[in-house]
Amino acid sequence: MTQHAFIKLMPKSTQQTITLAEIKDLFHYYKNITAKTGDQVNWNYGEAAFPYVMNERTHNDHTLLELVSNEDRYNHFYVGVKEENDEHIIFLSLPENATFGDKGKANEFCRFLAKKLQGQLHLFNGRIMYFYKR
Fold first, then answer.
1. In terms of residue numbers, what domain contains 34?
2. Which is nearest to 69 in space by CA: 84, 51, 87?
3. Nearest partner of 49 among 74, 25, 22, judged by Cα
4. Does residue 112 lie in a domain region?
5. Record's superkingdom (predicted)?
6. How far apart are alpha carbons 94 and 79 in whole angstroms?
7. Would residue 41 count as lying in a domain?
């Protein structure tokens, strides 16, 4: 069964609109900061923290970012952007063949994106986390 998590960009978020290219840039930033952490502890943490390759896919006239891994504990998941009622929403979708490792990394990336953008995070388990000032 496909699972979804999403981040709503709120009026008090750092930005109210976002594109897939900006999300891609945020993932590159994430890779960069985790690699620097790995350098400090003399370990290749960048590869372990982000074991995915990003590809763009088109599905039902929507462009999605597919994160694919060749690692044994990971498979893939999708990231996309949609607009509903003048709100931009970032969604992460775990397909049926996603692993527990994919779900863990997707949760980690959700928290990172929501914290960086100061959005409202709706996790896979239905819980909501608020990273914007209320």
1. 3-123
2. 51
3. 74
4. yes
5. Bacteria
6. 9
7. yes
